[in-house]
Specification:
5-stranded antiparallel sheet; 2 helices; signal; DVUA0089 family protein
Length: about 220
């Protein structure tokens, strides 16, 4: 029963957060560029936005093979192979792409960067999650404070060492599935008719409204 109620409140919680923290606002179609670095194999980068009316969502990553992003920045090649997963306000994965699934020109070659274009997405709140290759969403709907636990390598921060045939080694990260050593750098563009912002410290941000409500309840109880 609690789980059902939590999921029913997820859309309202997202709306509250987006307003309180300025994470999203209606806007004209535009492309937002982001860059950052993972320190562990199972890190996640999470982005929030709201579509006020139905529209298109397009996402492209650059850091594996490099390129020039929408902000005109030259992104160096060498980053890990990314995975993109798009969640709706109810916590369900509705779209995505894995870089290692993209075959480039030439027999047996891979593009390794991820991208997708979703046409006519419904209005509402969305979360976009960037993870490393093979750290894929499993099940759902997700509960926001436990977002990372819904990904396949939630408990293994150095799982890619196995790709090179090595034992788990907490000093070895960002090994591509073919054994090539990469870096933790990532870069992506999000093209959508909304303001997109990266969500900082997801669990803390999501729990803050609940903590505020609990605090106000305690104050009222003491005053009674």
């Amino acid at each position: 029963m609690f789980e059902f109620r939590f999921q029913g409140l997820l859309s309202q919680v997202l709306a509250c957060l987006l307003g309180l923290f300025g994470l999203s606002a209606p806007g004209l179609a535009a492309t937002s560029s982001f860059q950052g670095d993972f320190s562990l194999d199972n890190d996640l980068a999470i982005f929030a936005f709201e579509l006020v009316v139905p529209g298109d969502i397009a996402v492209t990553t650059f850091s594996h093979s490099g390129g020039v992003n929408a902000a005109g920045q030259n992104v160096a090649a060498g980053g890990f192979a990314p995975v993109l997963t798009l969640f709706d306000a109810d916590g369900y994965a509705v779209h995505g792409n894995a870089g290692s699934s993209n075959v480039c020109a030439g027999a047996g070659s891979f593009c390794w960067d991820a991208s997708f274009s979703l046409q006519g997405a419904a209005s509402g709140h969305y979360l976009l999650v960037l993870s490393q290759d093979d750290n894929n969403v499993i099940g759902g709907p997700v509960t926001m404070p436990l977002m990372a636990s819904f990904f396949s390598h939630a408990s293994d921060p150095h799982y890619t060492s196995g790709f090179a045939g090595l034992p788990d080694d907490d000093s070895l990260h960002f090994v591509r599935i073919d054994g090539d050593q990469r870096s933790g750098h990532w870069a992506l563009d999000v093209d959508v008719a909304a303001t997109v912002s990266q969500v900082p410290e997801l669990a803390t941000v999501i729990l803050w409204p609940f903590g505020l409500v609990a605090g106000l309840w305690l104050v009222r109880r003491r005053e009674a």
